[in-house]
Design goal:
The structure holds two protein chains of two kinds. Chain A is an all-beta fold. Chain A has no helices and twelve strands. Chain B is built from no helices and eleven strands. Classes of the chains: A mainly beta, B mainly beta.
Chain lengths: 116, 117
């Protein structure tokens, strides 16, 4: 069975510093996708970044990058130059297979708080 | 802009009434949509997979007669919480994967906060 683990329930970071949010996963399917979502206090789930299991390079989207270490089954999110607006819950998620009909499973989340 | 639209964003109802939540895919057809429930300070829990033109697939422990799902068109799925009770109060959120980017990224609606009095 697939599994997603986020070991950091909460993190505090000084504004403008970089922050790494940890995520490890477990699956026996060679084809899978990894996602990071941000959930501010409003509740909406905002897609941040995606990494496919066959992607050769780490995904990057603006200030977000995904440190994908396939052998270690980790997919950490790196946020560079953190901003106050980055304060939110962050969820790592995984999809087995590549179909739009494949469900995704979420980790328990990390609450990130940015200090001014 | 929004890829998935969800309505209403908030609903307050009396115990015993039924509540319908709509989830629409914008600018793309979604043969599959997903419904999640989220308790305060917890992660998202998949409730069911909504399949266009066929029955929904429910996760273990989710009462299908309590949470009715209808996916009648390629852009609309509805979740009806029947005979709602205070324990059904929660945040419900839907998602759909758009094929437009070639990666089948799942995008979420804004969620519905249900309060049952």
């Amino acid at each position: 069975a697939q599994k997603i683990t986020q070991t950091q329930p909460g993190m505090f970071v000084q504004e403008k510093e970089a922050v790494t949010l940890d995520c490890t996963y477990d699956t026996s399917d060679p084809s899978y996708g990894l996602f990071w979502y941000k959930q501010p206090s409003s509740g909406e789930m905002i897609f941040l970044i995606y990494q496919g299991s066959y992607d050769q390079q780490n995904a990057t989207e603006g200030r977000y990058s995904l440190n994908f270490q396939k052998a270690r089954k980790s997919a950490n999110l790196v946020i560079s130059a953190s901003q106050l607006g980055d304060s939110a819950m962050y969820f790592c998620a995984m999809r087995e297979g590549g179909s739009s009909a494949s469900k995704i499973i979420f980790g328990s989340g990390t609450r990130l708080s940015i200090r001014p | 802009g929004a890829v998935v639209s969800q309505h209403p964003s908030r609903v307050i109802c009396k115990s015993g009434t039924s509540v319908k939540i709509e989830c629409r895919s914008l600018d793309f057809q979604a043969t599959t949509m997903f419904w999640y429930r989220q308790f305060p300070k917890k992660s998202l829990m998949l409730m069911a997979t909504s399949n266009e033109g066929s029955k929904a697939t429910y996760e273990q422990g989710v009462e299908k007669d309590k949470f009715l799902i209808n996916h009648a068109s390629l852009t609309l799925s509805t979740l009806t919480v029947t005979s709602a009770h205070p324990e059904d109060s929660s945040f419900y959120i839907c998602s759909a994967a758009t094929p437009l980017d070639g990666k089948n990224i799942q995008y979420f609606g804004a969620g519905t906060r249900l309060s049952v009095l």
